[in-house]
TrEMBL record:
Name of the protein described by the UniProt record: Tripartite-type tricarboxylate transporter, receptor component TctC
Keyword Signal among record annotations: yes
Annotated PANTHER family: BLR1237 PROTEIN (PTHR42928:SF5), TRICARBOXYLATE-BINDING PROTEIN (PTHR42928)
Recorded family membership: Belongs to the UPF0065 (bug) family.
Signal peptide positions on this chain: 1-20
Gene3D superfamilies: Bordetella uptake gene, domain 1, Periplasmic binding protein-like II
Alphabetized UniProt keyword annotations: Receptor, Signal
Record keyword Signal present: yes
InterPro entries: BUG, Bug_dom1
Organism the protein comes from: Rhodococcoides kyotonense
Length: 324
């Protein structure tokens, strides 16, 4: 997947690392026969889009690997606790975890954070979904198109208020500014995506950039209008909404939801997970379920996933350093 300038992987889980306990396992056997169960660590709270995707994957992994998968949420410290647990787990395949871009990247590149892991602490085992965040306004807004929004700054000189719920929001926000010329005045809100949605519903901001699943209900009810998706392709949830590239802007950001294990895993562990996840993505029921969340079922093998992660770092670091 080619990521262009300011392209980032937003909302989504990048790695799902499952941590399998070895109780009852035989160290002389190969994975997955050497573990009695697997623990899947989710660095987010239950009920969100990352958690939902992981819980769609977990039972399918159980079926394909022939061992139980226990999903555990570790959202403490903005997800850093979960990522640390994944990175410090045994590299025997007993632990797998959900690691999202850009949150996984910003969690250790943000100069304001202090963690004991980085990209080299994980071995990618495959990604399962992608999505592009949406540029959304209140339906009562005068902005009918992304061009209208941009013209407010490029022609009128006005900065628009945009809600932000986490440091991750800096990446798509900066990408939209650079590509369109719009100027944003960043307004922080607590509560992540739900906080941004509440702010826009109350007309406390002019615009938000959010995952399709976060705004689906408000768009369906007629409260919100979607101007564009910053993804490289149109979202299955809103197929009539154009991409920023289609509108002539040099911007394509894809959020990748993937899985990974602690660095140093044997090739048989990586290969087994990768093969199983590729089969999961080919499952029509899985495809239908994730499309209902606004995601596209799209498999990346470990090498492609690793390349995407490295490119994310190149994009994110200067943005985070400049905004520290």
């Amino acid at each position: 997947m080619k990521l262009r300038r300011a392209a980032v992987l937003a909302a989504i889980p990048l790695f799902a690392i499952s941590c399998a306990t070895t109780t009852g396992g035989n160290s002389g056997e190969s994975f997955p026969d050497n573990v009695s169960s697997i623990r899947m660590i989710i660095p987010f709270s239950a009920g969100g889009s990352t958690d939902t995707v992981a819980r769609l994957v977990a039972p399918r992994l159980e079926e394909k690997l022939g061992t139980s998968v226990q999903v555990l949420n570790r959202p403490e410290r903005g997800g850093q606790a979960g990522l640390e647990e994944i990175a410090s787990a045994p590299a025997d395949g007993s632990v797998i975890g959900s690691v999202n871009f850009p949150s996984a990247v910003t969690s250790y590149l943000d100069p304001a954070t202090d963690v004991d892991y980085d990209r080299t602490s994980f071995d990618p085992v495959g990604a399962v979904t992608t999505f592009g965040s949406l540029i959304v306004v209140n339906s009562a807004s005068p902005y009918q198109t992304l061009g209208d929004l941009a013209a407010t700054s490029t022609q009128g000189g006005k900065a628009l208020n945009i809600a932000a719920g986490a440091v991750d929001d800096l990446l798509p926000l900066t990408g939209v500014q650079d590509a369109t010329g719009v100027k944003f005045n960043l307004i922080p809100f607590e509560g992540g995506s739900s906080g941004k949605v509440t702010a826009l519903l109350g007309n406390k901001v002019d615009v938000i950039i959010a995952a399709p699943s976060a705004v689906l209900a408000s768009v369906t009810s007629g409260d919100f209008r979607v101007l564009a998706t910053i993804g490289s392709e149109r979202t299955p949830t809103f197929p009539d909404v154009p991409t920023t590239s289609e509108l002539g802007y040099d911007l394509a950001q894809d959020t990748i939801n993937g899985f990974g294990v602690a660095a140093g895993a044997p090739s048989q562990v990586i290969d087994a997970y990768s093969a199983a996840l590729e089969e999961v993505v080919a499952d029509p029921e899985f495809v239908k379920a994730v499309e209902g969340l606004g995601f596209a079922a799209s498999f990346l093998d470990p090498e492609q996933q690793s390349d995407a992660w490295a490119e994310q770092e190149e994009i994110a670091k200067p943005i985070l350093d400049a905004n520290n």
